[in-house]
Specification:
Oligomer: single chain
Keywords: Aspartyl protease, Hydrolase, Protease
Strand order of the largest sheet: 2-1-3-5-4
Largest sheet: 5 strands, mixed
Distance between the termini: 15 Å
Mean pLDDT: 87
Structural class: alpha/beta
InterPro entries: Pept_HybD-like_dom_sf (IPR023430), Peptidase_A31 (IPR000671)
GO molecular function, one term: aspartic-type endopeptidase activity
CATH topology: Rossmann fold
Family: Belongs to the peptidase A31 family.
Protein name: Hydrogenase maturation protease
Helix content: 25-40%
Order of helices and strands: EHEEEHHEH
Low-confidence stretches: none
Length: 162
């Protein structure tokens, strides 16, 4: 069984929205135990529902529209999804706006997946969503490199502690 599945979500041809794609690419450079799986979620939206099955933890990495806080990282740890609330926790986090299907995905997961894995979300603020551009904002790119390094360290430590 996969202990941890890391999903990078976002459109690889839409500026900063390519964060998920670039995160998975960077994370593949690290050595991972067999119990960790990296998934390029692309623009998956609802097609990502099966990725929440057969694992103990899902870490979702995505870009959120945050023009005033480009490169800011918000980490939602052990997100509790409820069937009647879905992704309402995102509305409570000021400056976090998201389009696409992530809210819908997180709303359906508790209805369709049992048992639910622990869900962490790494939200990185972006502002450049230029169509047909896979290039990240420089600040976002620097932040992403640091986030991937820290995430690797955190997961390896977590797994070694059992």
């Amino acid at each position: 069984m996969i202990n941890i599945r890391i999903i990078g979500a976002g459109n690889p041809l839409h500026g900063d929205d390519a964060i998920g794609y670039h995160a998975v690419t960077l994370l593949k450079q690290f050595r991972w135990p067999d119990s960790v799986e990296l998934v390029d979620g692309n623009t998956g939206g609802l097609t990502l529902i099966p990725q929440f099955r057969h694992c103990k933890k899902v870490i979702l990495i995505d870009c959120f529209n945050s023009p005033s806080q480009v490169g800011q990282v918000t980490y939602f740890s052990s997100v509790e999804l409820k069937a009647d609330q879905g992704a309402d926790f995102l509305q409570a986090a000021q400056s976090i706006e998201h389009g696409g299907g992530i809210k819908e995905l997180l709303s359906l997961v508790p209805l369709l997946i049992y048992p639910l894995p622990v869900i962490d979300i790494v939200a990185i603020g972006g502002a450049n969503f230029t169509p047909f551009s896979g290039k990240l904002n420089e600040q976002v790119e620097q932040t992403l490199s640091d986030v991937c390094h820290r995430l690797h360290q955190k997961i390896i430590k977590e797994l070694s502690q059992g």
